[in-house]
Amino acid sequence: MGEGANSLFPNYGRYPLAFVKGEGSRLWDENGKEYLDLMCGLAVTNLGHAPKQVKERLKDQVDQLWHTSNLFHIPNQEKLAKLLTDNSCGDAVFFCNSGAEANEAAIKLARRYFNKVLGKPDQYEIITFHLSFHGRTLATLTATGQDKVKDGFAPLPEGFVYAPYNDSEALEQAIGPKTCAIMLEMVQGEGGVNPADPAFVARVAELCKQHGLLLIIDEIQTGIGRTGKMFAYEHYGVEPDIFTLAKGLGSGMPIGAMVGKEHLRSAFSAGSHGSTFGGNYLSTAAGIATMETMLAEKLSDRAAELGDYIVSTLKEKLAGNPLVTEIRGLGMLIGIGCTQPVADLITAIQEQAVLVVSAGPNVIRLAPSLLISKEDLDRGLDVVCSVLSKQAAAAV
Ligand SMILES: *Cc1c(COP(=O)(O)O)cnc(C)c1O
């Protein structure tokens, strides 16, 4: 593509497309061609591209101040922390710059709580699940229950144990004397849009109580209204000790957050963890505007309604399509499970100027803006379904 493409490491498989402008659910490429975005930059731009409220707040902040470091109070950071704790089960927030860093902070907090507060330094193991995704740092790729992200990176840090997802009995077996926490997603995003079974989540919470373990919920993809509640754990009637956020929190500005309950506060004393950029004026300005818009416009409710509509529309239009095995999801995080790899289908959809993304090899993932118009949504779903129908017809 651009002249500088060879100056980058080739660690991404990129489509031959580059966008230069975005507004709402529309993107425009270098040639002025318009695309309809049903993937939101990987479930990030939940309010659409360049949403007015966030843009205005950012512009004001750009004029005022960008960065001072965490050696000083940052009023925006405190304001966003309060917005998060007022609207969740959490009591204290640590800000960072990405999802992996938020999970890294959660892992560190869990270990340090057992080590320093409970005086149990030998209880450091965290149980995670097959097909989970928790990030790309050494600790979080080790926490991730997929071999492909670990290839070539040994030696990996100790202290992670894996169990099959949605299997309460296997989880019980995995708990041992070294276990300190159980960490999971309410809907496995990268792993294939796999919602957790309510009975399983209830059992996870029960086992945590029974064994004195911390419940860590990775809400990096599911949080900030995406699933039809502000945080996906609300669907399940459980309260995590720690939950992590990133993707949707800043509408595209880099920000991550780790939110914990009161009893964990003292595990992080001054100097125990930190980040130079974490929670700086610009990223937290974006976070405040995003949260305020989500709350004022009750966008989680809209995500619940539109999500139901998407699932019922897809079920109707794809009924009898032999390529489609299942349509599943929660709110506006939806997967179309297919009998074959979906890479070519996604390219064919892209050729019709609609953007979707895979979740694992055989699942097409839809994560549209929570503010997408019904008209745009219908048009996008038409394109997705007609490409799947054509492909099914061609395969006969
Ligand atoms: C994207 C994602 C991460 C990693 O976030 P980064 O910002 O890419 O580090 C972690 N957990 C889940 C569930 C995610 O979807």
UniProtKB/TrEMBL annotation:
Pathway: Amino-acid biosynthesis; L-arginine biosynthesis; N(2)-acetyl-L-ornithine from L-glutamate: step 4/4. Its EC number is 2.6.1.11. InterPro entries: AcOrn/SuccOrn_fam, Aminotrans_3, Aminotrans_3_PPA_site, Class-III_PLP-dep_AT, PyrdxlP-dep_Trfase, PyrdxlP-dep_Trfase_major, PyrdxlP-dep_Trfase_small. It catalyses: N(2)-acetyl-L-ornithine + 2-oxoglutarate = N-acetyl-L-glutamate 5-semialdehyde + L-glutamate. Transmembrane segments: none annotated. Homodimer. Gene3D superfamilies: Aspartate Aminotransferase, domain 1, Type I PLP-dependent aspartate aminotransferase-like (Major domain). Pyridoxal 5'-phosphate binds at G99, A100, F133, D218, E219, I220, Q221, T276. The modification N6-(pyridoxal phosphate)lysine is found at K247. The gene is argD. Belongs to the class-III pyridoxal-phosphate-dependent aminotransferase family. ArgD subfamily. Pfam families: Aminotran_3. This is Acetylornithine aminotransferase. It comes from the Bacteria. One of its GO terms (molecular function) is N2-acetyl-L-ornithine:2-oxoglutarate 5-aminotransferase activity. May also have succinyldiaminopimelate aminotransferase activity, thus carrying out the corresponding step in lysine biosynthesis.
